[in-house]
UniProtKB/TrEMBL annotation:
Coiled coil: none annotated. The keyword Ligase applies. InterPro entries: GSPS_pre-ATP-grasp-like_dom, PreATP-grasp_dom_sf. Residues 11-387 form the Glutathionylspermidine synthase pre-ATP-grasp-like domain. It comes from the Bacteria. The keyword ATP-binding applies. It comes from Campylobacter taeniopygiae. This is Glutathionylspermidine synthase. Pfam families: GSP_synth.
Length: 389
């Protein structure tokens, strides 16, 4: 793979646009000063892969619901009703997610690692910063697979139109409001949520932002300062709500049942989010070129990756060959169910590994990369890209 050195975005500029997590604990820059060179046909292949896989995830989720396979995915029982309700009614529109891929460069096949469908991060970096890198280096900003901002704006409109055509948004929109929430004290999540607030506002919605602990929930709906909000966007994983805030999980289910609010991303994205669905995908589409063999027990005769069904930032992930651990990360998810996924090496350059992330908002809409060790964790760096033959 090829990298193109660029002048990095200066920290005072990053601070000025609200991006404060630009420096890691060891003092190194979080945003790389190089761009991954991606050919146009490679960018198209990432786009097509995301679109094809989304349809496959929908089929796999239907299989889970029809056959009551929630337990296999590690999904808490107190969210099953919310998942079913949100799945059956189109008003619960999936706003956005991010597919993580190995391969896709230098002739290596694209392979799905997982789908971050509920609370995907690196949105600000992918939508705004990698575009700014091109602009500040006097490059043509269009030389990038990056329609994330525009695609999100269109997908917000689809919350109202519920179909491909968003031109009638203004005809149908009747002042419904979206309250956006993140947890206080986590700057990255707050800025990501505020970016989404801004995009929804630009799409034509009335919006507001509030930390989660300032939001009021009741059977009658979701409120802030006495104002009722028809939509609530939360950058809090559904499984965390189920496990740590059981009363809230029950209340949100009741709010949905009473049709008092619509929650984004919908509860059914927890099916997509669970890495347990990778096993079901492989059952439904064995040997599909985009999939890696995945089971709920160790693979025989193959190097494999052991992952918790709900885990973040590479925690509790291990790579195992011939029953020997080649690499592993510790973390808080050791009591999770685990899946076992065939190992495939990421794109690499000078002993650093690059994982492609493709955002999806109604369709594939943007590409970004993270780089780090064999298992990407919370010390990984963000790397932008440029389409260059």
């Amino acid at each position: 793979m090829r990298l193109l050195k660029v002048n990095k975005l200066q920290k005072d500029y990053l601070e000025s646009i609200g991006f404060s997590w630009h420096t890691d604990e060891d003092g190194s820059d979080y945003i790389s000063d190089a761009l991954v060179c991606v050919k146009e046909n490679e960018a198209n292949a990432y786009y097509e892969a995301a679109n094809e896989l989304y349809d496959m995830f929908v089929a796999a989720a239907q299989n889970v619901i029809d056959n009551d396979r929630f337990d296999e995915l590690g999904i808490p029982f107190n969210l099953v009703d919310a998942i079913k309700m949100s799945w059956e009614n189109d008003v619960h529109w999936h706003l956005y997610g991010r597919f993580d891929f190995a391969g896709g460069l230098d002739g290596k096949p694209i392979k799905l690692l997982e789908f971050n469908a509920d609370t995907p991060t690196s949105l600000f970096e992918s939508a705004i910063l990698q575009w700014a890198i091109l602009k500040q280096n006097n490059m043509d900003e269009s030389y990038q697979f990056n329609n994330i901002y525009e695609s999100l704006m269109e997908n917000f409109k689809r919350l109202i139109t519920l179909n491909d055509d968003t031109s009638l948004f203004e005809n149908y929109y009747q002042g419904w409001k979206i309250l956006f929430s993140s947890i206080a004290g986590i700057k990255e999540e707050e800025i990501t949520t505020k970016l989404l607030t801004h995009i929804a506002n630009e799409a034509g919605f009335e919006t507001n932002f509030s930390y989660v602990d300032e939001v009021e929930f009741s059977d009658e709906g979701i409120f802030k300062d006495g104002i009722n909000y028809e939509y609530w966007f939360k950058l809090i994983p559904w499984e965390d709500i189920a496990i740590e805030e059981g009363d809230l999980a029950m209340l949100l289910t009741q709010i949905m049942r009473n049709q008092k609010a619509i929650i984004l991303n919908p509860a059914y994205t927890l099916i997509f989010q669970s890495k347990g669905i990778m096993k079901i995908l492989y059952e439904l589409y064995p040997n599909h070129p985009l999939l890696l063999e995945t089971k709920d027990q160790p693979l025989v005769g193959k190097t494999y990756v052991k992952k918790p069904v709900f885990g973040r930032e590479g925690a509790n992930v291990s790579i195992i060959k011939d029953e020997q651990i080649l690499n592993e990360n510790e973390g808080p998810y050791e009591n999770n169910k685990f899946i076992y996924q065939e190992y495939v090496e990421l794109n690499s350059h000078e002993n650093e590994f690059y994982q492609a992330g493709v955002f999806f908002a109604y369709e594939g809409c943007g590409l970004g990369f993270r780089k780090g060790g064999m298992i990407l964790d919370n010390s990984s760096k963000f790397v932008g890209h440029i389409i260059k033959e």
